[in-house]
């Protein structure tokens, strides 16, 4: 994966966020981190470019799914990975296109997130 890719990781669990962020950084990605919707919105508004979004579905101040709209207003083809310990019951609220939206249930392997990011960002650049 190209080192120029920037991923916004939104996860309220400190240990999960830290482990995944370190893994993605070690894999050559640039990672922006947020632990709630307010922080994520600020990053979405300030970041010059995002290549992908990894969002926990349940956050202390809202729903990770609500962050997709403002992000896609800036980057219409932004790939999004939804992570949740509650399954993918809201899949019908996404585009249904696996190049744009994927659900990955907790617990997941760090490699599964990286693999999905690689697949989705390479499809977006084709």
UniProtKB/TrEMBL annotation:
SUPFAM superfamilies: CheY-like (SSF52172)
One Gene Ontology biological process: phosphorelay signal transduction system
Keyword Repeat: no
Gene3D superfamilies reported in the protein's UniProt record: 3.40.50.2300
PROSITE patterns: RESPONSE_REGULATORY (PS50110)
Chain positions found as 4-aspartylphosphate: 56
Response regulatory domain location: 6-121
Alphabetized SMART domains for the sequence: REC
Keywords assigned by UniProt, alphabetized: Phosphoprotein
Keyword Phosphoprotein: yes
Stored PANTHER family: RESPONSE REGULATORY DOMAIN-CONTAINING PROTEIN (PTHR44591:SF3), STRESS RESPONSE REGULATOR PROTEIN 1 (PTHR44591)
Protein name per the record: Response regulator
């Amino acid at each position: 994966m190209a080192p120029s890719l920037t991923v916004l990781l939104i996860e309220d669990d400190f240990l999960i966020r830290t482990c995944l962020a370190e893994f993605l950084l070690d894999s050559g990605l640039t990672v922006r981190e947020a632990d709630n919707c307010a922080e994520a919105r600020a990053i979405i508004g300030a970041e010059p470019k995002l290549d992908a979004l990894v969002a926990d579905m349940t956050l202390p101040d809202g729903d990770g799914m609500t962050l997709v709209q403002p992000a896609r207003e800036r980057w219409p083809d932004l790939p999004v990975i939804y992570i949740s310990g509650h399954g993918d019951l809201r899949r019908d609220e996404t585009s249904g296109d696996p190049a744009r939206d994927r659900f990955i249930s907790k617990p997941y392997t760090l490699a599964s997130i990286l693999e999905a990011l690689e697949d989705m960002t390479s499809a977006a650049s084709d």
